[in-house]
Amino acid sequence: MANILLQTTIATTPDDWDVSRFSLLADELRGAGHRVTARNRADGPVDDPVLSTLDESDFDQLWLIAVDVGDGLSALEAAAIRRFREKGGGVLTARDHQSLGSSLSRLGSLGAVNEFHDDVDDPESMRDDRDTPSISWPNYHSGANGDYQPVFCDGPVHELLRTDKTSTGRIEWFPAHPHEGSLRVDLPNATPLAHGRSATTGRRFPLAVLLEGEPTHHGDVMGRGLAESSFHHFADYNWDVERGAPSFVSEPPGTEIASDPSRLAAFKDYVHNLAAWLHPATVAAVRVQ
Predict the structure, then answer these.
(1) Distance between CA atoms of 109 and 205, rounded to whole angstroms?
(2) What predicted TM-score, i.e. pTM, was given to this entire model?
(3) Over the stretch 81-122, which tens digit does the pLDDT of each residue have?
(4) Strands 182-183 and 173-175
(5) Which domain of life is it from (predicted)?
(6) CA separation for the pair 282, 254 (Å, rounded)
C-alpha cells in the first residue's frame, strides 16, 4: 500500500477549495488501505516544510490539488517535487479553468502539459462556459457539478480505466464540472488517458494526460505523472452536492450523481487504479520486465 501526500497549494481557507473539501477522496484512499496525509500548504510567505523536503520524505506519491492563482508553489518546493519524481515518486496534479493552479508551471513536464490563460491563444476556441462571465478561457463545460460526463477512449482501454462495475469493463463516466481546464498532449512522453466532451460545443478535450517513461538527467526513469483537467473530479461537492461548496460558486448543481450513485462507484475504481499506477514499486516492476 502507498504512503500518499494529499496536498493543496493554498493555506487553510474554509471558504475555498482547501483540503477539507477533499475528505471523501482521502477516506476512499484510506479505506483501500493506503496511508494518507491530507494537508494544506503553510500559511504566509514561507517555504512549506513538507513540500520543500518532499524528496527526503518517505512519501510514495503526491496528489497535488492546485487551487492557487499562481503563488501556490515556491521555487524550493517545486524543485523538491521535481527531485521527488526523479527519485521515482508518483505525482498527480489537478487544477481547473483559466489560470487556476498556474503554480504547476514550475514542475517541468507536469507543468508544461497544462495550458493556462495567456494573450496568445484564441479565446473564442477555448471558452466553453458562457454562463459564468467571471471565468475566462481556457475552460471546457462538461456539465453541472453533481452530474456525470461521458468518457471517450480511443484504442485499447488503459488499465487506469478498468472496472468490474460496468458491462463494458471500463469506467464510462467522470464527475462533470462547468469549466474544466485545458491540457496538452503534444509533448514527449505525454499520452491522453481519455477525453471528455463539451456540453456546449461538442468539442472533445483531454480529461487526463499521462507522463510515463521520462528520462532523468542521469539516465534513470522518472516516477509516473498524471495531470487531471479538473480537481472537481475528486472534490466532495462533485461526489455529493450536499457537502456544499465555497460561497463564490454560483452555478446551480445537478442531481445525476445523487439519483444514480452506481456510476460514481465505478469512478472510484479510477481512484484505486491511480494509487496502484502511481506507486513506485509498480513502476520498478514494469522497468524490469
Answers:
(1) 19
(2) 0.91
(3) 999 999 999 999 999 866 677 889 899 999 899 887 565 555
(4) unpaired
(5) Bacteria
(6) 37
